[in-house]
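Work Package 4 report. The design task specified in the project plan requires that, given a folded chain encoded as structure tokens, an amino acid be chosen for each position. We show below one input record used in the internal validation round.
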């Protein structure tokens, strides 16, 4: 809570001798006109203030606008054997809320309850949505107190966090432990942006981030299948469609992916002295460039990234973070090596940490690759050539393969 103080300045009235005499006469008249009650007040009590003065002493608090629940999205429940689901509550305004983990009781299953304050919901929000997959039975609204309840299946668990701009409450549900004997490795590739969110662009060379990222993802998938035939590869999108940041990671969780790689292209509004390849893992950071980049990729402001990163960091498991660093190091090294076969001066910007929302909640090693700069002229020109794109994609695929083989 932020308390804003007000400075109070005492006014000084200056006057001549006549003014002083008039003030003295006025004070004497006031004293004469007051009733002479000299009896002491009990306990030194002060006289009751006049009604209008009492109202001034305690000004009424301004009314808080109600937030509005406009949509409930359920991601990751497309497959019958989904390992988890993600429920996203989308709001207009910022609601006050707290969450409860309720155990099974009688005929009621274990539940995750989101208690909301000063919230209303639109007519388009259904009172109940049956899911019955990924550890989640259904999502329902409870009245009269505004509350969203997730009924879990036996053995399932849920964890809650929020994202801002727009405000979203996210619940990640895990179906629980499952057997993974003789299971073929699964890699989920995520081409960044798409649809109404094209990302960065270079008009001079006709480059759009969403288009280049999709091409790189398809080339990476083809190469990975060729060098590791047993590996299954999925793309979060195969066309230029809208896909929320929450849905991308939810798909990887639901399919129990072994690795999640989000592919992007870097850009800057300031002149770029050198471009290069960077591979990011999810973590808090105070680096100005990393914060600005995360804000751009998240579609939000730097203040939103810095304000929420400490909250989200506690959901990032240590074992998953260690695997992410290993995966990032291998992708960075192989991508740089292959990229330099076409562009010898391709810079190494290293493995870095940033708060990318697309990686939040991932239950497997996950990284975000900024394969080159769209706003650095040598790399922008190179990205117009198939040979350079193919080299970058082969590097990403080789890095993923190296990570899977070393597990």
């Amino acid at each position: 809570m932020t308390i804003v103080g007000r400075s109070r300045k005492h006014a000084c009235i200056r006057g001549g001798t006549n003014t002083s005499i008039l003030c003295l006469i006025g004070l004497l008249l006031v004293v004469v006109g007051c009733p002479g009650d000299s009896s002491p007040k009990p306990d030194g009590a002060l006289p009751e203030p006049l009604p209008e003065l009492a109202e001034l002493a305690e000004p009424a608090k301004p009314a808080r606008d109600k937030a509005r629940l406009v949509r409930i999205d359920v991601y990751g429940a497309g497959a019958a054997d989904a390992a988890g689901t993600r429920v996203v509550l989308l709001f207009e305004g910022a609601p006050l809320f707290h969450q409860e983990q309720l155990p099974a009781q009688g005929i009621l299953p274990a539940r995750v309850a989101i208690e909301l304050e000063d919230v209303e919901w639109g007519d388009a929000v259904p009172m109940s949505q049956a899911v019955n997959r990924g550890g989640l039975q259904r999502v329902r609204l409870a009245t009269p107190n505004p509350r969203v309840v997730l009924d879990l299946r036996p053995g399932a668990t849920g964890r809650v966090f929020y994202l801002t701009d727009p405000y979203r409450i996210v619940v990640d549900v895990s179906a629980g432990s499952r057997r993974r004997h003789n299971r073929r490795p699964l890699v989920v590739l995520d081409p960044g942006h798409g649809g109404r969110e094209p990302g960065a662009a270079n008009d001079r060379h006709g480059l759009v981030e969403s288009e280049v990222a999709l091409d790189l993802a398809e080339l990476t998938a083809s190469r990975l299948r060729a060098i590791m035939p047993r590996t299954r590869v999925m793309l979060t999108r195969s066309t230029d469609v809208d896909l929320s940041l929450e849905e991308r990671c939810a798909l990887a969780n639901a399919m129990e992916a072994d690795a999640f790689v989000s592919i992007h292209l870097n850009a800057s509004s300031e002149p770029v002295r050198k471009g290069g390849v960077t591979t990011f893992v999810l973590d808090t950071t105070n680096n100005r460039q990393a914060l600005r980049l995360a804000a751009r990729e998240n579609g939000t402001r730097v203040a939103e990234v810095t304000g929420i990163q400490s909250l989200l960091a506690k959901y990032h498991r240590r074992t998953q973070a260690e695997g992410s660093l290993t995966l990032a190091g291998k992708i960075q090294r192989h991508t740089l090596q292959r990229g330099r076969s076409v562009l010898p001066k391709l810079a190494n910007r290293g493995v870095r940490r940033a708060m990318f929302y697309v990686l939040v909640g991932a239950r497997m090693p996950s990284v975000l690759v900024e394969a080159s700069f769209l706003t650095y002229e040598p790399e922008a020109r190179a990205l117009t050539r198939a040979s350079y794109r193919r080299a970058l994609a082969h590097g990403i695929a080789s890095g993923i393969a190296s990570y899977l083989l070393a597990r």
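The radius of gyration is 30 Å. Validation will be extended to a larger panel in the next phase.
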